[in-house]
Amino acid sequence: MRPGRQGERHSGDEQHPHGGDWLREIVFGLNDGLVTTLVFIMTVSAVAGAGSLVLIALSEIVAGGVSMALGGYLSARTEHDILQQRIATERTEIADEPAEERAELRRIYYDKGLRGQLLERVVAQLTANDDRWLNALLRDEHGVVEDDGAAPWQRGLQIGIAFVVGGIIPALPFLAGLPHPRPIAYALTALTALALGALKARYTLKGPIRAALEFLAIVTGGAVAGVAIGTLLHAV
Q1: Which residues lie closer than 8 Å to 30 by C-beta, 6 or more apart?
Q2: Considering only CA atoms, which of 86, 100, 79, 209 is closest in space to residue 150?
Q3: What is the pLDDT of residues 139-170, one digit of tens each?
Q4: DSSP string, 16-52
């Protein structure tokens, strides 16, 4: 097969999109905003007036968005700091204990199935350069893969904005003063959850129907719990 044809075949066979790291923060924030606000509205709408409900819902959405943004930032910052500590430790060990680190790398690739001269050539190639050596240890010993490049504050901001967007969706019927806002809020949330699940399926092993129904089940469970709690509070 000619190189050109092989390249064409490879390009044609590439059906699955790469990436999707950004989706983690978006899904986390959107899903939390959808479910939290829907449950909150379903619960409070049974005992609060329409005017006060709108103000309470907006306050809950804003406060939740800020809390989620700060939590996302702290989580990403902690992950970043741990990674930097691992990098510094491995870099020091390569400089101070090269024989031990070389033996560690040899054992890793031995477990991967390399033997004899091939194993020694691979280890020699990887340890010939300190940066290459460090990257090999981080990848094969600690499982560190290429980072998506997003700073902790960016990841926190993504989660916070996604929460606010997700929170506004079920609140829209109440903000617009529509009649029978609770079923409309659930319908909007359910449609968003289905779309979000289908989007998630593009970057996971799950099919779009299964992923969409999974999100729908979470939203429905939250809505049922909210209605039950609201009814109970109203009865009390």
Answers
A1: 162, 163, 165, 166, 192, 196
A2: 79
A3: 888 877 655 567 888 889 999 999 999 999 99
A4: S----HHHHHHHHHHHHHHHHHHHHHHHHTTTS-HHH
And the tokens for 48? 């609060």
CA distance 236 to 139: 58
Reference 191, options 43, 57, 34; nearest CA is 34
What is d(CA 155, CA 25) in angstroms, rounded to the nearest whole number?
Answer: 7
- Does residue 87 carry a pLDDT above 80? yes
* Of 105, 95, 107, residue with least CA distance to 137: 105
11-15, 57-61, 166-170: range with highest mean pLDDT: 166-170
Residue percentage of the chain with pLDDT more than 90: 32
d(CA 168, CA 163): 9
If phi over 0 gives left and psi between -120 and 50 gives alpha, with beta otherwise, what is residue 17? beta
As a residue count, the chain comes to: 236
Sign of CA dihedral 223, 224, 228, 229: negative
CA 24, 192, 46, 236 torsion: positive or negative? negative
Cα(28)–Cα(177) distance, rounded to whole angstroms? 29
